[in-house]
Task: structure prediction
Amino acid sequence: MSNEVVMESARTLHGQLQRGLGRAARRAADRPGSGEYVYDCIRRDPRWDPQCESRGLYYARLLVDLELPAGPVAEHLFHPSDHVDDDPWRVQLALEVLSDLVRLSRREAAAPLRRYAEEGSHWYDALVELIELGDPALTLGLDDVVASRCDDADLAQLVPSDPNPVIDAWAVRQPRIAEALERSRERARDNARYREAARAAGLPGRPARTGGPRASSGDGSGLAARSDGELLDVARRRGPDSVGAIFELGRRRTLALLDLAEELLPERPGRFGGAVCRALAQYGPETLPRARAWAAAKGGCEDMGLRILARHGTRQDIPLLMDELRETVEKREWGGAASPAEGLGRLRAGEAVPLLKTAWTESTYAYLRPRVLTALTRTAPHTAESYAVEGLWDCEADVREEAARFAPHTRDTRLRLQRLHHDVAEDPEVARIAPSFITAR
Result:
């Protein structure tokens, strides 16, 4: 069976379902053949970036609303290719859909999910989904599978530190799982202590994964006491203290970090370049001159330059941001459209509205749509109303949250907000804010 994805036109129902658009979820019930399109999307995962785009709950809700059986999803899991295809993304979306079906009270979806955890090639991913469901009744006996197949590294990834009824039940029967649970909770306690100490010291609030300030000096004073020039030397060595030195430069908001960015970012990807980007996120308008030069030169630092312009740019930056948005839309390079869309929205650049509308409809990168909707609500509030209504049915939780804030008050939107509020499978933040916007109107 071929799993190659062919993205259909955004003018078709199939293409809209592939993109996770709310308009497709609303149209599907009235269109013959919609069910086959839904199944096709689940079998051939259409996400541009599966690691950050959501589709599981979107397709699971469609299966419920269209009264479609879970059987074809299970058939996809157990297709003979499962034992010859090493790509975990072949089944990841199907596993997520089954898991969300269980949350939507379609408990028959738990049987193939459990069976795949026992028999499937990517059994570990199915275990993750079952653990997150948090229902010990669905996982009786699977602790034997976990104990026999998982080494200590697997258990460290599988066992959460937060209370989980499934893990707690397994830990009673399996000493290795109990030990992994205690180690996970100890790491959580260590991380909490680190974050508290970091806040007190004004350092980045995350545990250092490599030897950083604390690893080298115990209290961070070894790097904190050094000059900017010395820290730059440490950072350039790309040794165990380099990330700590980068963060210390960022904490000081020294402009020397911009010079380091010009050295490291063109070499991307890399953890040191990533540390520079995180550190620069603490800076403000003082970085604008360099950011403008980076964005215009396209010499390897343009992504960081555009991010800075999106956060701190002024109206003089609108032409550059418009050019960037136009280019990404024309080339369908949707990953690069987020920063210009955010910046143009923050600056309330009305001239961006046609491009934003095109990006909303055509983008195959659903993660872009929350930024587009925010930009539309700021640049053209009246135009944005119809997109906000559609957004209540969108695949992305951030879109649904933003839509709940701005959708006009109608019978349809009220009913939808009520459903989002009461749906146990909904993102907690969306469910939390939905009733406040119902009552506020």
